[in-house]
Amino acid sequence: MKKLLVFGAGLIGGSLALALKAADASWHVTGLGRSGDSLQEALKLGIIDEAATDLASAVSAADIIMIATPVAQIMPILGQIAPFLNRRTVITDAGSTKADIAAQAQQILGDAASRFVPGHPIAGAEKSGPTAAQASLYQQKNVVLTPGSHTDDDAITAVRAMWLSTGAIVREMSPDAHDTIFAAVSHLPHLLAFALVDELASRPDANQFFEFAASGFRDFTRIAGSSPEMWRDISLANRMALLQELDHYQQALAKLRQHLEQGDAAGLQAIFERASHARNDWAQQQVSASWKN
Fold it and tell me: Global pTM?
Protein backbone atom coordinates (compact mmCIF):
# COMPACT_ATOMS: atom_id res chain seq x y z
CA MET A 1 0.00 0.00 0.00
CA LYS A 2 1.22 3.47 -0.90
CA LYS A 3 0.20 6.06 1.66
CA LEU A 4 -0.52 9.67 0.71
CA LEU A 5 -1.40 12.27 3.31
CA VAL A 6 -3.01 15.29 1.68
CA PHE A 7 -3.59 18.61 3.38
CA GLY A 8 -6.52 20.09 1.49
CA ALA A 9 -8.74 17.63 -0.40
CA GLY A 10 -10.23 20.23 -2.73
CA LEU A 11 -9.63 20.87 -6.41
CA ILE A 12 -5.84 20.42 -6.38
CA GLY A 13 -5.33 17.88 -3.60
CA GLY A 14 -8.54 16.02 -4.37
CA SER A 15 -7.74 15.75 -8.07
CA LEU A 16 -4.29 14.38 -7.24
CA ALA A 17 -5.84 11.76 -4.95
CA LEU A 18 -8.37 10.71 -7.58
CA ALA A 19 -5.73 10.56 -10.32
CA LEU A 20 -3.36 8.45 -8.23
CA LYS A 21 -6.06 5.99 -7.24
CA ALA A 22 -7.24 5.76 -10.85
CA ALA A 23 -3.70 4.89 -11.95
CA ASP A 24 -2.92 2.53 -9.07
CA ALA A 25 -5.56 1.14 -6.71
CA SER A 26 -2.94 0.45 -4.03
CA TRP A 27 -2.83 4.12 -3.05
CA HIS A 28 -4.40 4.86 0.33
CA VAL A 29 -5.21 8.54 0.84
CA THR A 30 -5.66 10.20 4.21
CA GLY A 31 -7.05 13.73 4.31
CA LEU A 32 -6.48 16.64 6.64
CA GLY A 33 -8.05 20.08 6.40
CA ARG A 34 -9.52 23.07 8.17
CA SER A 35 -13.10 22.03 7.52
CA GLY A 36 -14.55 18.82 8.88
CA ASP A 37 -17.49 19.17 6.50
CA SER A 38 -15.14 19.37 3.53
CA LEU A 39 -13.31 16.22 4.63
CA GLN A 40 -16.57 14.37 5.07
CA GLU A 41 -17.58 15.42 1.58
CA ALA A 42 -14.23 14.17 0.24
CA LEU A 43 -14.84 10.86 2.00
CA LYS A 44 -18.32 10.57 0.53
CA LEU A 45 -16.98 11.25 -2.97
CA GLY A 46 -14.25 8.64 -2.61
CA ILE A 47 -11.48 11.21 -2.88
CA ILE A 48 -9.90 10.18 0.42
CA ASP A 49 -10.06 6.84 2.21
CA GLU A 50 -10.04 8.30 5.69
CA ALA A 51 -9.96 11.63 7.50
CA ALA A 52 -7.06 11.88 9.92
CA THR A 53 -7.98 12.12 13.58
CA ASP A 54 -4.43 12.32 14.92
CA LEU A 55 -1.78 14.47 13.23
CA ALA A 56 1.23 12.62 14.63
CA SER A 57 0.15 9.16 13.52
CA ALA A 58 -1.02 10.38 10.10
CA VAL A 59 2.29 12.12 9.42
CA SER A 60 4.51 9.31 10.68
CA ALA A 61 2.64 6.72 8.58
CA ALA A 62 2.78 8.66 5.29
CA ASP A 63 5.02 7.82 2.34
CA ILE A 64 4.30 11.16 0.66
CA ILE A 65 2.77 14.28 2.15
CA MET A 66 1.11 16.73 -0.22
CA ILE A 67 0.28 20.22 1.05
CA ALA A 68 -2.42 21.50 -1.31
CA THR A 69 -3.55 24.58 0.59
CA PRO A 70 -3.38 28.34 0.02
CA VAL A 71 0.28 29.39 0.13
CA ALA A 72 -0.05 31.25 3.43
CA GLN A 73 -0.89 27.96 5.16
CA ILE A 74 2.07 25.98 3.83
CA MET A 75 4.69 27.25 6.28
CA PRO A 76 2.53 26.69 9.38
CA ILE A 77 1.73 23.16 8.18
CA LEU A 78 5.41 22.38 7.67
CA GLY A 79 6.01 23.49 11.24
CA GLN A 80 3.19 21.27 12.52
CA ILE A 81 4.39 18.12 10.74
CA ALA A 82 8.13 18.56 11.32
CA PRO A 83 8.27 16.82 14.75
CA PHE A 84 6.48 13.70 13.45
CA LEU A 85 8.22 13.03 10.14
CA ASN A 86 9.94 9.69 9.77
CA ARG A 87 13.20 9.29 7.87
CA ARG A 88 11.58 8.07 4.64
CA THR A 89 8.62 10.43 4.25
CA VAL A 90 8.77 12.72 1.22
CA ILE A 91 7.08 16.12 1.43
CA THR A 92 5.85 18.25 -1.45
CA ASP A 93 3.41 21.07 -2.04
CA ALA A 94 1.27 22.61 -4.77
CA GLY A 95 1.83 26.28 -4.01
CA SER A 96 1.83 28.87 -6.79
CA THR A 97 4.92 30.59 -5.40
CA LYS A 98 8.17 28.81 -4.71
CA ALA A 99 11.09 31.03 -3.63
CA ASP A 100 9.55 31.99 -0.28
CA ILE A 101 8.51 28.42 0.47
CA ALA A 102 11.87 26.90 -0.47
CA ALA A 103 13.78 29.39 1.69
CA GLN A 104 11.65 28.99 4.81
CA ALA A 105 11.33 25.21 4.53
CA GLN A 106 15.08 24.88 5.10
CA GLN A 107 14.74 26.46 8.54
CA ILE A 108 11.47 24.81 9.51
CA LEU A 109 12.19 21.22 8.49
CA GLY A 110 15.86 20.94 9.48
CA ASP A 111 17.34 17.65 8.25
CA ALA A 112 14.01 16.68 6.69
CA ALA A 113 14.33 19.64 4.28
CA SER A 114 16.32 17.37 1.96
CA ARG A 115 13.13 15.36 1.43
CA PHE A 116 10.99 18.41 0.63
CA VAL A 117 10.40 18.83 -3.11
CA PRO A 118 8.56 22.10 -3.84
CA GLY A 119 6.09 21.76 -6.70
CA HIS A 120 3.44 23.62 -8.66
CA PRO A 121 0.87 21.88 -10.86
CA ILE A 122 -0.14 24.22 -13.67
CA ALA A 123 -3.75 23.18 -13.72
CA GLY A 124 -6.87 24.39 -12.04
CA ALA A 125 -10.24 26.02 -12.42
CA GLU A 126 -12.18 28.89 -10.94
CA LYS A 127 -14.12 26.42 -8.78
CA SER A 128 -12.80 24.93 -5.56
CA GLY A 129 -13.64 22.29 -2.96
CA PRO A 130 -13.97 18.50 -3.17
CA THR A 131 -16.82 18.61 -5.69
CA ALA A 132 -14.49 20.35 -8.16
CA ALA A 133 -11.90 17.54 -8.02
CA GLN A 134 -11.45 15.43 -11.13
CA ALA A 135 -9.11 12.53 -11.91
CA SER A 136 -8.23 13.91 -15.34
CA LEU A 137 -7.23 17.40 -14.18
CA TYR A 138 -3.47 16.90 -14.64
CA GLN A 139 -3.42 14.98 -17.90
CA GLN A 140 -0.99 16.68 -20.30
CA LYS A 141 -0.60 19.60 -17.89
CA ASN A 142 2.76 20.92 -16.75
CA VAL A 143 3.90 20.35 -13.19
CA VAL A 144 6.94 22.38 -12.17
CA LEU A 145 9.30 21.05 -9.50
CA THR A 146 11.82 23.41 -7.91
CA PRO A 147 14.24 21.27 -5.89
CA GLY A 148 17.43 22.80 -4.51
CA SER A 149 20.99 21.49 -4.63
CA HIS A 150 20.43 19.94 -1.20
CA THR A 151 17.29 18.01 -2.22
CA ASP A 152 17.59 14.22 -2.04
CA ASP A 153 17.57 12.58 -5.48
CA ASP A 154 15.29 9.77 -4.29
CA ALA A 155 12.75 12.33 -3.04
CA ILE A 156 12.76 14.09 -6.41
CA THR A 157 12.32 10.74 -8.16
CA ALA A 158 9.37 9.84 -5.93
CA VAL A 159 7.55 13.14 -6.52
CA ARG A 160 8.30 13.04 -10.24
CA ALA A 161 6.94 9.49 -10.50
CA MET A 162 3.83 10.47 -8.56
CA TRP A 163 3.02 13.29 -10.95
CA LEU A 164 3.88 11.29 -14.07
CA SER A 165 1.37 8.65 -13.01
CA THR A 166 -1.38 11.31 -13.17
CA GLY A 167 -0.57 11.99 -16.83
CA ALA A 168 1.23 15.25 -16.09
CA ILE A 169 4.33 16.62 -17.84
CA VAL A 170 7.02 17.24 -15.20
CA ARG A 171 9.45 20.15 -15.57
CA GLU A 172 12.18 21.50 -13.28
CA MET A 173 13.47 25.03 -12.71
CA SER A 174 14.82 27.19 -9.91
CA PRO A 175 12.38 28.77 -7.44
CA ASP A 176 13.34 32.30 -8.53
CA ALA A 177 12.85 31.50 -12.23
CA HIS A 178 9.47 29.98 -11.42
CA ASP A 179 8.25 33.04 -9.53
CA THR A 180 9.43 35.45 -12.23
CA ILE A 181 7.68 33.52 -14.99
CA PHE A 182 4.42 32.95 -13.17
CA ALA A 183 4.18 36.52 -11.95
CA ALA A 184 3.86 37.45 -15.64
CA VAL A 185 1.75 34.65 -17.09
CA SER A 186 -0.49 33.73 -14.15
CA HIS A 187 -0.46 36.09 -11.20
CA LEU A 188 -0.71 39.34 -13.21
CA PRO A 189 -3.64 38.14 -15.37
CA HIS A 190 -5.55 37.23 -12.21
CA LEU A 191 -4.89 40.66 -10.72
CA LEU A 192 -6.10 42.34 -13.90
CA ALA A 193 -9.27 40.26 -14.06
CA PHE A 194 -10.10 40.93 -10.41
CA ALA A 195 -9.40 44.65 -10.88
CA LEU A 196 -11.64 45.03 -13.93
CA VAL A 197 -14.61 43.21 -12.39
CA ASP A 198 -14.21 45.09 -9.10
CA GLU A 199 -14.01 48.46 -10.87
CA LEU A 200 -17.17 47.79 -12.88
CA ALA A 201 -19.01 46.36 -9.88
CA SER A 202 -18.23 49.54 -7.90
CA ARG A 203 -20.02 51.79 -10.39
CA PRO A 204 -23.53 52.99 -9.46
CA ASP A 205 -24.84 51.67 -12.80
CA ALA A 206 -22.91 48.39 -12.63
CA ASN A 207 -25.97 46.27 -13.46
CA GLN A 208 -26.31 47.91 -16.84
CA PHE A 209 -22.67 47.13 -17.72
CA PHE A 210 -22.96 43.50 -16.65
CA GLU A 211 -26.25 43.17 -18.55
CA PHE A 212 -24.51 43.86 -21.84
CA ALA A 213 -21.22 42.06 -21.11
CA ALA A 214 -20.69 39.19 -23.54
CA SER A 215 -18.06 36.66 -24.58
CA GLY A 216 -15.07 39.00 -24.54
CA PHE A 217 -15.79 40.06 -20.97
CA ARG A 218 -16.57 36.47 -19.97
CA ASP A 219 -13.30 35.12 -21.40
CA PHE A 220 -11.15 37.90 -19.95
CA THR A 221 -12.69 37.78 -16.47
CA ARG A 222 -13.31 34.04 -16.01
CA ILE A 223 -10.43 33.76 -13.56
CA ALA A 224 -11.91 36.50 -11.38
CA GLY A 225 -14.23 33.78 -10.13
CA SER A 226 -11.26 32.06 -8.46
CA SER A 227 -10.73 31.82 -4.71
CA PRO A 228 -10.10 35.33 -3.29
CA GLU A 229 -8.22 33.89 -0.30
CA MET A 230 -5.89 31.87 -2.51
CA TRP A 231 -5.08 34.78 -4.81
CA ARG A 232 -4.62 37.19 -1.92
CA ASP A 233 -1.96 34.85 -0.52
CA ILE A 234 -0.28 34.27 -3.89
CA SER A 235 -0.14 38.00 -4.63
CA LEU A 236 1.47 38.81 -1.30
CA ALA A 237 3.87 35.87 -1.40
CA ASN A 238 5.16 36.88 -4.86
CA ARG A 239 4.69 40.61 -4.45
CA MET A 240 8.17 41.74 -5.57
CA ALA A 241 8.01 39.90 -8.91
CA LEU A 242 4.37 40.91 -9.30
CA LEU A 243 5.13 44.58 -8.65
CA GLN A 244 7.75 44.43 -11.38
CA GLU A 245 5.25 42.92 -13.80
CA LEU A 246 2.68 45.57 -12.89
CA ASP A 247 5.28 48.22 -13.78
CA HIS A 248 5.85 46.58 -17.18
CA TYR A 249 2.11 46.41 -17.80
CA GLN A 250 1.55 50.01 -16.80
CA GLN A 251 4.24 51.03 -19.27
CA ALA A 252 2.41 49.09 -22.00
CA LEU A 253 -0.88 50.78 -21.03
CA ALA A 254 0.82 54.18 -21.15
CA LYS A 255 1.91 53.47 -24.74
CA LEU A 256 -1.64 52.50 -25.67
CA ARG A 257 -3.01 55.63 -24.04
CA GLN A 258 -0.51 57.77 -25.93
CA HIS A 259 -1.48 56.23 -29.27
CA LEU A 260 -5.19 56.76 -28.45
CA GLU A 261 -4.67 60.39 -27.42
CA GLN A 262 -2.76 61.09 -30.63
CA GLY A 263 -5.18 59.16 -32.82
CA ASP A 264 -2.23 57.07 -33.94
CA ALA A 265 -3.86 54.25 -35.92
CA ALA A 266 -0.54 52.84 -37.12
CA GLY A 267 0.87 52.67 -33.59
CA LEU A 268 -2.22 50.87 -32.29
CA GLN A 269 -2.26 48.43 -35.18
CA ALA A 270 1.44 47.61 -34.71
CA ILE A 271 0.83 46.67 -31.06
CA PHE A 272 -2.31 44.70 -31.91
CA GLU A 273 -0.56 42.81 -34.72
CA ARG A 274 2.43 41.86 -32.57
CA ALA A 275 0.11 40.69 -29.82
CA SER A 276 -2.15 38.79 -32.21
CA HIS A 277 0.76 36.97 -33.85
CA ALA A 278 2.31 36.08 -30.49
CA ARG A 279 -1.02 34.82 -29.13
CA ASN A 280 -1.78 32.76 -32.25
CA ASP A 281 1.72 31.28 -32.32
CA TRP A 282 1.39 30.28 -28.67
CA ALA A 283 -2.03 28.72 -29.28
CA GLN A 284 -0.67 26.75 -32.22
CA GLN A 285 2.23 25.48 -30.11
CA GLN A 286 -0.27 24.29 -27.52
CA VAL A 287 -2.22 22.38 -30.16
CA SER A 288 0.97 20.84 -31.59
CA ALA A 289 2.15 19.77 -28.15
CA SER A 290 -1.19 18.12 -27.37
CA TRP A 291 -1.05 16.14 -30.63
CA LYS A 292 2.51 14.97 -29.90
CA ASN A 293 1.49 13.78 -26.48
Answer: 0.87
